[in-house]
Design goal:
Elements: E1 2-7, E2 23-35, E3 38-50, E4 57-58, E5 64-76, E6 79-90, E7 98-99
Antiparallel strand pairs: 1-2, 2-3, 3-5, 4-7, 5-6
C-alpha cells in the first residue's frame, strides 16, 4: 500500500520552540501480513522538508527517512494489543540549519 501527502502550516505564528513552522511532503509504502491472531506491519517513508517563508531559519530544513515496524495481537473480537517502533534518520543534515534568535 502506498501513501503520500503534503503538510503546510496554517499559521505564521511566533513559535520557535521546539520546532519552527516548516512545510513538508512525504511518500511512503506500508506492508501488512496477517498471521492469525497476529498482524505484523511495517512501513518506510521519505519526508522532504521545504523551507517556509514564515519560518525564521538559517539554511534548509533536513529531510528524513522514517521506518515503522509493529504487531497487533487480537485478544478477543473487540480487543487487541499493539506494539510498534518508529525510527527516523536525518538524511540531509545541514550544519548551518538553526532557528534564528528573536531580536
Amino acid at each position: 500500500m502506498a501513501s503520500g501527502g503534503l503538510s503546510i502550516p496554517t499559521s505564521q505564528g511566533e513559535h520557535t520552540q521546539p520546532l519552527p513552522y516548516v512545510s513538508s511532503a512525504y511518500l511512503g509504502a506500508t506492508a501488512v501480513k496477517n498471521l492469525e491472531p497476529l498482524v505484523v506491519f511495517g512501513g518506510l517513508s521519505y519526508v522532504y522538508a521545504m523551507r517556509t517563508s514564515g519560518a525564521r531559519l538559517y539554511g534548509a530544513p533536513p529531510d528524513s527517512v522514517v521506518t515503522r515496524l509493529g504487531a497487533s495481537l487480537a485478544i478477543s473480537p473487540f480487543t487487541a494489543v499493539t506494539a510498534g517502533l518508529n525510527a527516523s534518520y536525518v538524511v540531509s543534515a545541514n550544519p548551518y540549519y538553526q532557528v534564528q534568535a528573536q531580536v
